[in-house]
């Protein structure tokens, strides 16, 4: 009888599916929903001291009110570069400099932009589903190999079902996260 622990690493499959979910949550966090959030500026990098540096490492990000993000830049010489990075980030927000603070007023989203963002969220979710299905395929390939190396039919079937159940669970989580995000985006 083959040692199934060597043939299929179930924990690795689970870890990789968790990674797909984590990536999806980060992508969803970067989508602007009309409400201010520090996570919407976290992907922005600023040219600082000769290298690209995350914006949260050149200043303090705050959300003083529901429609405003402020970034207090620590080194005044980076103020212009941070403003430029925000303008070029594709957030569609015009930064306002006030001393060493950059204010980002979050405009109200119109219906067309909301629908656009809901589609983008759907695209992100589909990428996560594809990643999860790829992990499933890897697991099934491991099982196929294990079966050809002498894994009993019953074990093969049991592990195949386990991998499929895990896949279904994660695909369901992606669908639920998408539904929640789309509701949040469409909320006026």
From TrEMBL:
Domain Ribosome recycling factor residues, every copy: 24-186
Residues in the signal sequence: none
Keyword Cytoplasm: yes
One term under GO cellular component: cytosol
TM stretches of this protein: none
CDD domains: RRF
Protein's cellular compartments: Cytoplasm
One Pfam entry name: RRF
Keywords: Cytoplasm, Protein biosynthesis
GO biological-process terms attached to the record: cytoplasmic translational termination
Keyword Cytoplasm attributed: yes
InterPro entries: Ribosome_recyc_fac, Ribosome_recyc_fac_dom, RRF_sf
GO MF, any single term: ribosomal large subunit binding
Superkingdom of the source species: Bacteria
Assigned protein family: Belongs to the RRF family.
Its biological purpose: Responsible for the release of ribosomes from messenger RNA at the termination of protein biosynthesis. May increase the efficiency of translation by recycling ribosomes from one round of translation to another.
PANTHER family: MITOCHONDRIAL RIBOSOME RECYCLING FACTOR PSEUDO 1, RIBOSOME RECYCLING FACTOR
HAMAP family given in the database record: RRF (MF_00040)
Protein name: Ribosome-recycling factor
Organism expressing this protein natively: Tranquillimonas rosea
Gene responsible for this protein: frr
